[in-house]
Amino acid sequence: MKVLFLGAIDAGKTSLIQRLTQDRVWEDKTGCVIYGDWIDTPGELFENQGFFRRLLQLTNQADLVLWVVDATKPMLGNHLEYRRLIETPVIGIATKIDLESANLLQVSKRMQELGIWRWFPISNSTSEGLDALRAELVELEQMIQKEKRVVK
C-alpha cells in the first residue's frame, strides 16, 4: 500500500514516517522523497497553490493520503478546495499532541470542515497514538489488497 504524507511545513510528516518505519536515515527536511511505499512530500507543495497540481498528481499515485497537521498551530488557508480534488481516501493526523499548546478541539473542527472523519492524535516524541495508527494502517492495507485481488 502506497501512503502519501501531506501537510504544511513543520507539521511532522517526516518525523511521523521515521516513527512508523523506525528508520532515522531521513534528513530533517525533505524534497519529495519516495521511500518504498511511503511518499513524503515537502510542506511547500501543500502551502503554495502553484504547486498543488503536482501534489494532486502525487495523491493519485497513492492508495491512502495522511493529511498531517500540527496540533499546536491554527490550520490557516483554504484547503477545502484541495481536499475536494483529492479522490484518494484521506485520514487525518494531528501531531505534537504532547505539547501544552496543542488544541485538539480546533483540530477536530477543522478536520470536520475538510470532510476528514477519521483522524488520529499522535505524538512523534512520546509515541502516543502510534499503535492505534499502525493498527489502522494494517487493517486498511489488508482491505486494499483484498480489493486489488477482486479487481484482477
Structure description:
By secondary structure, the chain is an alpha/beta fold. The chain has one domain: 3-Layer(aba) Sandwich (Rossmann fold). The protein has a 6-stranded mixed beta sheet, with helices on both faces. The longest helix is centred in the C-terminal third of the chain and has 22 residues. The protein is globular and about 50 Å long.
Strand content: 15-25%
Structural domain tally: 1
Distance linking N and C termini = 16 Å
Identify the CATH architecture.
Answer: 3-Layer(aba) Sandwich
User: What's the CATH class label?
Assistant: Alpha Beta
Number of strands: 6
Q: What is the overall shape?
A: globular
Order of helices and strands: EHEEHHEHEHEH
Number of helices: 6
Q: Note the main sheet.
A: 6 strands, mixed
Could you tell me the radius of gyration in angstroms?
Answer: 15 Å
CATH superfamily: P-loop containing nucleotide triphosphate hydrolases
The CATH topology label is Rossmann fold
Low-confidence stretches: none
Sheet with most strands: strand arrangement: 2-3-1-4-5-6
- Percent of residues in helices: 40-55%
By secondary-structure content and strand pairing, the structural class works out as: alpha/beta
In round numbers, the mean pLDDT is 87
List the helices and strands and how they pair.
Blueprint: E1 3-7, H1 13-21, E2 33-35, E3 38-40, H2 43-47, H3 52-60, E4 64-70, H4 80-85, E5 90-95, H5 104-113, E6 119-121, H6 130-151
Parallel strand pairs: 1-3, 1-4, 4-5, 5-6
Antiparallel strand pairs: 2-3
